């Protein structure tokens, strides 16, 4: 199972990419490690399925009422744990293949961990990051703003199924990592990877006063932690790099990990990963920053100057391969062994009426954060996901337009859910002077639609620290926060600070003061006003100071994660079929023969995939015939080249399609397609499995 089919379409391109990266990927010399604590580390990794409901469900990221219709790649939560054997202190980092993790999810995870481990894992030492795929299952937020952003065509924005599966997967990945703890080592590696991303808001970035200090207009740092057992077994790799996982465009309707999911898949196939095993090699590619950074390869729906090819798979595979190649170069270089104490600080900060000290406001004196709100340029979307709304563009400030002129140009029938609400509210919304240059379009804070309590966190593993903030942070903002924490933690010997954005919760964007004034998409989506970045820097400095002094920190408050907003997506009432057919019956057989590079396809009479989410299982199999006539699994829905598609016929019929993109290195032979699912009886409510098997076909 899980035969490696990649490095095929990009086998030659990958080699060329490595040659190119050789001149752009620079591993800087790092200072000597901090003194190791007596006893070294215990290390453990684990992964678990978080795929969830794969049809009649939304996605989070584009906020465009995406109605998802199947699965391109199974999704996972991946975790590592490090234990300081001298002190017992622990650090946990989780990377989830999802668009956003929210306060409600994190608090439920911490509640479950408290029940299992009685305080061993807590809000100080458990950090949850994401890949930020814009085509992953959504519906896990208790905030109305992000519930609407996750709506599908039915206007349902919360899914109890997806919420439960996400929490279960995160917890179980941590449990597996805990159970796998063993003496081991950690290597930290860093490089500068240039040429594979670009700044989508360059005009705003160039407004920064300190832009001349930096060579690059995007954040090019790639950080990597590698975990090895005392016996030399490779346990896992975690790689942070700043980019948007948006190479599948907003019209894509199959769930996927996008470029970071592809990079993870390439790694894990090399190591023979089996995600259903308690212990297996884990490769995670959480996002570092996103903000103003997008793939240089673009996607098929981007604005013309940012557009990729019409081939969505090509765009994804190109940028995923680029990240993998850079990471693989690091993996095959000697690194520096991490040594030193393990520590953590994290707290929930109440940003309502929060005062940012003058030190962090760039000469504007003490400032109070604003009530959360989105500006007009938020409705324009980013270059990699433009809204196309007439009269809306990036750079709309209070001084540049009249609201009435814009509203008259807008055709509300074309708008997504959030923007429709926003324009409907314009006539009753007063502008907030606190928001400075931002002309408020969506006063979500006034309506109680967004949390004002946000998590900020620091993990320390010897000479390495990891910053966790809940915002999509741009190029310059990342630099400011990282450099500030590096200075504060220098007395502890910390010389490598990893940035993890959109972490522990999702709270929109954050931009620098100069970028905010320009009001591009990122500045218009900076909820708490022009000094939000200063507030984050102030809080991270306080956490770092507490870490240096050895003092604890406390929460200001806990976020309200009540269910009052939930519009839970409906489940399956029953499945039906024509009297002359059976569940699993093949409606369209594959062709008798295919060649490498073609796509094999079969259509089945199926059931709704929400009947059984098949956690750790599969909706499809590609099977290969052995010489003795028996069949073995060759690929499943975990594999990159397969896809499962569901569509409704009438009120209660389902058609399911299995596709296999046959790679150039697939061995000649006889194969068949299998679809597995479950159907729900309308009379008894019983759910029963079925299996459909296609005719054999040859590949040559």
Description:
Zn(2+) binds at residues 132, 244, 472, 509. The structure is a single chain. This protein is 22% helix and 26% strand. It starts with 10 loop residues before the first helix and ends with a strand. The chain contains 13 helices and 33 strands. The strands form eight sheets. Strands 1, 4, 5, 6, 7, 9, 10, 11 and 13 form a nine-stranded mixed β-sheet that branches. Strand 4 and strand 5 (90-96) form a beta hairpin. With 700 residues, the chain is an alpha+beta fold. Helix 2 (103-117) packs across helix 4 (160-179), helix 6 packs across helix 7 and helix 10 (475-489) packs parallel to helix 13 (532-549).
Features:
700 residues, alpha+beta, Immunoglobulin-like, nine-stranded mixed sheet, six-stranded antiparallel sheet, 13 helices, 22% helix, 26% strand
Number of strands: 33
Report the total helices: 13
Radius of gyration: 25 Å
The biggest beta sheet reads: 9 strands, mixed
Portion of residues in beta strands equals 25-35%
Poorly predicted runs of 5 or more residues = 1-37
If you average the pLDDT, what whole number results? Answer: 92
Q: Look at the helices and sheets and give the structural class.
A: alpha+beta
Helix proportion range = 10-25%
Basic shape = globular
User: How far from one another are the termini?
Assistant: 20 Å
Family: Belongs to the neutral ceramidase family.
GO cellular component, one term: membrane
GO molecular function, one term: N-acylsphingosine amidohydrolase activity
Cofactor: Zn(2+)
């Amino acid at each position: 199972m899980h035969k490696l089919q990649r490095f095929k379409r990009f086998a030659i391109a990958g080699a060329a990419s490595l040659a190119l990266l050789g001149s752009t990927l620079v591993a800087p010399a790092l200072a000597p490690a901090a003194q190791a604590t007596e006893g070294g580390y215990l290390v453990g990794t684990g992964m678990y399925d978080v795929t969830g409901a794969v049809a009649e469900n939304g996605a989070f990221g584009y906020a465009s009422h995406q109605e998802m219709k199947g699965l391109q790649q199974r999704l996972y939560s991946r975790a590592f744990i490090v234990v300081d054997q001298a002190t017992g202190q622990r650090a946990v980092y989780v990377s989830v293949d999802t668009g956003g993790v929210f306060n409600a999810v994190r608090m439920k995870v911490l509640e479950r961990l408290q029940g299992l481990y009685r305080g061993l894992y807590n809000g100080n030492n458990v950090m949850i990051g994401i890949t930020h795929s814009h085509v992953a299952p959504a519906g896990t937020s208790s905030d109305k703003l992000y519930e609407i952003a996750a709506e599908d065509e039915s206007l349902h924005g919360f899914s109890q199924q997806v919420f439960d599966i996400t929490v279960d997967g995160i917890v179980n990945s941590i449990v597996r990592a805990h159970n796998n703890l063993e003496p081991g080592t950690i290597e930290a590696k860093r490089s500068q990877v240039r040429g594979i991303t670009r700044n989508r808001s360059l005009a705003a970035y160039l407004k920064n006063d300190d832009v001349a200090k930096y060579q690059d207009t995007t954040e090019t740092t790639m950080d990597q932690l590698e975990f090895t057992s005392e016996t030399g077994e490779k346990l896992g790799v975690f790689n942070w790099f700043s980019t948007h996982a948006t190479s599948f465009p907003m019209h894509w309707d199959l769930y996927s990990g996008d470029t970071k999911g592809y990079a993870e898949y390439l790694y894990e196939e090399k190591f023979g990963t089996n995600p259903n095993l308690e212990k297996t090699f884990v490769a995670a590619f959480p996002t570092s920053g996103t903000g103003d950074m997008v793939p240089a390869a673009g996607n098929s729906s981007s604005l013309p100057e940012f557009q990729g090819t019409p081939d969505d798979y090509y765009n994804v595979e190109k940028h995923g391969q680029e990240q993998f190649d850079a990471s693989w170069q690091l993996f095959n270089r000697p690194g520096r062994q991490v040594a030193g104490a393990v520590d953590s600080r994290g707290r929930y900060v109440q940003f309502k009426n929060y005062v940012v000290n003058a030190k962090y406001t760039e000469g504007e004196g003490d400032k109070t954060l604003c009530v959360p709100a989105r500006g007009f340029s938020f409705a324009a979307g980013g270059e990699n996901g433009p809204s196309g709304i007439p009269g809306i563009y990036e750079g709309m400030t209070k001084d540049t337009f009249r609201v009435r002129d814009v509203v008259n140009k807008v055709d509300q029938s074309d708008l997504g859910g959030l923007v429709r609400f926003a324009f409907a509210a314009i006539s009753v919304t007063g502008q907030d002077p606190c928001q400075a240059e931002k002309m408020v379009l969506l006063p979500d804070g006034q309506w109680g639609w967004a949390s004002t309590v946000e998590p900020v966190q620091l993990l320390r593993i010897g000479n390495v620290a990891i910053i966790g903030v809940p915002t999509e942070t741009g190029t310059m903002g990342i630099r400011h926060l990282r450099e500030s924490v590096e200075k504060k933690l220098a007395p502890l010997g910390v010389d490598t600070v990893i940035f993890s954005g959109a972490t522990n919760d999702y709270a929109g964007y954050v931009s620098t003061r100069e970028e905010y004034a320009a009001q591009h998409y990122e500045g218009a989506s900076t909820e708490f006003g022009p000094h939000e970045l200063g507030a984050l820097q102030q809080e991270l400095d306080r956490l770092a100071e507490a870490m240096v002094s050895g003092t604890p920190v406390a929460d200001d408050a806990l976020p309200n994660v009540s269910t009052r907003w939930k519009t839970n997506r409906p489940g399956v009432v029953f499945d039906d079929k024509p009297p002359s057919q059976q569940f699993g019956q093949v409606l369209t057989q594959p062709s008798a023969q295919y060649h490498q590079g073609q796509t094999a396809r079969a259509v089945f009479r199926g059931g709704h995939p929400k009947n059984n989410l098949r956690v750790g299982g599969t909706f499809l199999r590609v099977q290969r015939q052995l010489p003795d006539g028996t069949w073995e699994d060759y690929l499943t829905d975990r594999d990159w080249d397969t896809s499962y598609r569901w569509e409704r016929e009438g009120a209660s019929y389902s058609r399911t399609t299995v596709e296999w993109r046959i790679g150039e290195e697939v061995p000649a032979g006889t194969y068949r397609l299998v679809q597995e699912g479950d159907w729900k009886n309308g009379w008894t409510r019983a759910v029963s499995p079925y299996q459909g098997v296609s005719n054999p076909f040859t590949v040559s």
